[in-house]
Design brief:
Layout lengths: L12 H14 L2 E6 L3 H12 L4 E7 L2 H11 L3 E4 L2 E2 L2 E2 H10 L5 E6 L4 H9 L4 E4 L4 H12 L10 H10 L5 H8 L4 H8 L3 H15 L9
Parallel strand pairs: 1-2, 1-3, 3-6, 6-7
Antiparallel strand pairs: 4-5
Length: about 220
């Protein structure tokens, strides 16, 4: 006996009015904010509250407060300023990714330069957004990373060449795999190392790739 195909009944005007809000409620992306500036934290929270499907779940000024916030709220996406009072966003992103949490990370910073773009890939960030970008660009990046995509600029040949000259020759393969977003398990298997040794080599390489970072203003 075959299935009888029937056309679904059209929604009534009343149901159509509530359908879109209901769908938004079912697919809300929870966002945390880590930034040293109170005005930035407040402004971002206000922007996110006004955008359908996005919901701010908390904010912190630095690394110390961030760990408690992220453990408590378990956001889908966290926006992290590169320069923090008690550390930096690159290091925080590295630790979050090492903990294998499901939280996706966007570096939300002022004038991201070649170094930040490279380091973001090395530590496994999922996106970079300039603070000067229009809100629509930020919202799109949040939605992209929340569904498993990335919002990262492509690295240029000059960026890759400069990075290759700053790391130890033994770390070139590691650098290439991290820039290519190879999973930690695959990196360890390819290099025949345990994940702890890979983490130590990555930290050493980050030290070679960094420049001295200015401390965030209070």
């Amino acid at each position: 006996m075959g299935w009888e195909c029937t056309r679904p009944e059209p929604l009534s005007p009343g149901l159509r009015r509530v359908e879109a809000p209901l769908r938004s409620l079912l697919s809300v992306t929870r966002v945390a904010i880590i930034d040293p500036q109170p005005a930035v934290r407040a402004g971002l929270s206000m922007l996110l509250r006004g955008e359908p499907g996005l919901m701010p779940v908390g904010a912190a000024a630095g690394v110390t407060d961030a760990h408690g916030l992220l453990a408590r709220e378990r956001p889908d996406v966290v926006l992290i300023e590169h320069h923090l009072r008690d550390g930096d966003g690159i290091g925080l992103c590295r630790r979050l990714k090492a903990e294998r949490t499901a939280t996706r990370v966007i570096l939300y910073t002022t004038l991201p330069d070649d170094e930040v773009e490279l380091l973001a890939r090395v530590v496994g960030a999922d996106g970079i957004v300039d603070k000067a970008a229009p809100p629509a660009e930020l919202f799109e990046a949040i939605r992209l990373v929340a569904r498993g995509d990335t919002a990262l600029p492509a690295l240029t040949r000059s960026q890759l060449d400069a990075a290759a000259h700053r790391v130890e020759p033994d770390d070139l393969a590691l650098l290439a795999m991290l820039v290519d977003r190879t999973s930690p398990a695959d990196v360890a298997a390819t290099l025949h190392m345990d994940r702890g040794r890979v983490a130590k080599r990555t930290e050493r390489m980050l030290g070679s790739l960094r420049r001295a970072a200015p401390r965030a203003a209070a």
